[in-house]
Write a structure and sequence with these properties.
CATH topology: de novo design (two linked rop proteins)
Strand content: under 5%
Number of domains: 1
Shape: elongated
Number of strands: 0
């Protein structure tokens, strides 16, 4: 991958989510919440990647905003998995830290765009 931090981090996060999904299905026999986690966790990178190919600033903002939305939803599913007893605190803490980092990164990208678009 090129030197694109958010693209690289979202891709690595998606890989972690895929592995966690597999673990939850195989060892915890959890299929419902983990499927939502899989969808939102991999969609972050999908939208970040899509933002790299758009033709306009509004389209870039839209894709990155969708990535932020998916990251926020993913945090919700991770918290439910932890609170539901499917993730140990240590497992949760590790992946949650990465999720929060992505949220902060995407917020830092979309905030300046949001200000520009409203002016």
């Amino acid at each position: 991958m090129d030197e694109n931090i958010v693209l690289e981090k979202s891709y690595k996060f998606a890989l972690r989510i895929v592995r966690l999904y597999k673990h939850l299905c195989e060892t915890k026999k959890e299929f419902v919440l983990s499927r939502q986690m899989l969808f939102t966790g991999t969609a972050i990178g999908e939208h970040v990647k899509g933002a790299q190919e758009v033709d306009s600033r509004p389209d870039f903002f839209h894709e990155m905003s969708l990535g932020l939305k998916m990251a926020s939803k993913n945090e919700y599913w991770l918290e439910l998995l932890r609170d539901g007893g499917f993730l140990e605190d240590k497992e949760f803490a590790s992946i949650h830290t990465d999720c929060v980092e992505l949220i902060k990164l995407l917020k830092s990208i979309t905030r300046p765009t949001r200000r520009t678009e409203t002016n």
